[in-house]
Amino acid sequence: MVTFQNRQEALNQVCDPTEQNILLNIYGEAGIGKSRLLHEAADRLRAKSPPALVLYVDLKPQIADAENQGEAVVRALIAQSQGRLNVAWQSAEYAAGQVVAQLTELAALVPVFLMFDTTEALQEEMAFWRWMEVNLVGPLAVEGQVRQVFAGRVPVPWRRIEVRRIVRLLPLEPLSPQDAARDLAREVVSGLEGAALEQAVDLVVEFSFGHPLLSEAVAEFVTEHWPGSPTEAFSKALCQEQVQPFIKQDFFETVEPPWGEILRWASVLDWFDATILQRYLMRVAPQLVKGRPDYFFIQGLNRLRIQNTVVWREERGDRLHGVIGDIVRHCFKVTDGEGYRRACLGAAEMFEGLADEFGDVPEAEQYRREAELYRRRAEQEGEE
Questions:
Q1: Number of other CB atoms surrounding residue 88 within 10 Å
Q2: Hey, how many other C-beta atoms are within 10 angstroms of the C-beta on 221?
Q3: Are 345 and 375 in contact (CB under 8 A)?
Q4: In degrees to the nearest 10, what's the CA dihedral of 33, 255, 59, 168?
């Protein structure tokens, strides 16, 4: 495993006692480094004097498949407590109350941290999150002595007011191309020096967009197959043999067909909703729309947003989550430049059509500006 890259700001949010983060919710796409950040923070906290009590629970393997998930969480915390939690078990709720009381007492003596990883594994289990808020998260938040850190692809669906009032959201961004992403690439790329090394590092950053896990994979491929200088053929091979499989296996692992292909086309759009996506696909990939009713796209986007966590809702509509859209779109451009150009023209025509339907209103002008944006992108692709 490569050296932990500089996430100092995020580490401070977790570890610094001057930060008032009693409840911190870290989120970001698959492979962005959430688990690595939690483990690094736990190691640093345990190395301090006095050493912190850090209890770490990964919800996916430990909790998601349990018959009683709330009970499984409490038992996991007790098991890691090094004998500091002495709980008389009557029920999961009773045990959780004792855990809250004892952890609060311990926090007066040593720093106490609870870390919950892979929260997306239970994203749709609202009964579980209600139980957690009522019996564990909420009471600890009210006491304000124990720090709780949750990490997942999207924020936890908090509902209770005492929790929502104090939770702090921390999006985990890709590594900066100017520093940490390049350091990671240099650490993995071997056997190259001087200008060749810098060219290889540039290529890693270009295709990974600073995504840590993909950066490692791309750097390993570049090291093994470096042709002497970057070429168009090598870039295509890199996409086909490394980036596309990564997209399928890591980003779109749980995405059912044909949504993987739909999202490849959708990566061209800066934003979309079910209607815009349908209209766009009718122009660029009609085979993906034919015979499918409106609710296929409405329900599909809801599922991708909530269950698969690869789509993100913003003010105007949806987009691919985090840096996923950048990676998918760039790979699309490199492997199928003409298809990408056609997609941009299709988006321009679609937004122009929407503007014509709206007539002389401000929203129509916005659609026309977007149409011009996609038209320029198509022209730029044709010039390259």
A1: 7
A2: 20
A3: yes
A4: 60
Least confident of 16-20, 97-101, 259-263: 16-20
For residues 384 and 234, give the distance between their C-alpha atoms in angstroms, rounded to a whole number.
Answer: 17
At residue 6, the pLDDT reads 66
d(CA 312, CA 319): 5
Could you write out the three-class secondary structure of 91-115?
Answer: CHHHHHHHHHHHHHHHCCCCCEEEE
Query: Measured between alpha carbons, how far is 104 from 330 in angstroms, rounded to an integer?
Result: 49
Distances (CA, A) of 362 to 100, 186, 290, 294, 370: 54, 49, 32, 27, 13
The whole-angstrom distance between residue 191's C-alpha and the CA centroid of its chain comes to: 32
- Residues facing residue 9 across a β-bridge: none
List of long-range contacts for 98-107, beta carbons under 8 Å, 24+ apart:
99/74, 99/136, 100/135, 100/136, 100/139, 100/140, 100/143, 103/140, 103/145, 103/146, 104/140, 104/143, 104/145, 104/146, 106/53, 107/145, 107/146
**Rounded CA gap, 67 and 69, in Å?**
6
First to last CA, the chain: 37
For tokens 């950053």, name the residue.
205
Q: How far apart are CA 375 and CA 345, in angstroms?
A: 6
* Mean pLDDT, rounded, of the chain: 91
**For residue 37, which of 158, 175, 229 has the smallest C-alpha distance?**
175
Phi-psi region of 278 (alpha: psi -120 to 50; beta: other; left: phi over 0): alpha
User: For residue range 300-312, what is the model confidence (pLDDT) as tens digits?
Assistant: 999 999 888 899 9
Q: Is 125 exposed, middle or buried, given 0-12, 13-18 or 19+ CB atoms closer than 10 A?
A: middle
Residue 319 has pLDDT above 60, yes or no: yes
Q: SS3 of 253, please?
A: coil
What is the per-residue pLDDT for 66? 87
Task: Give the domain 8-171 fold.
Answer: Rossmann fold (3.40.50)
- pLDDT > 90: what percent of the chain? 71
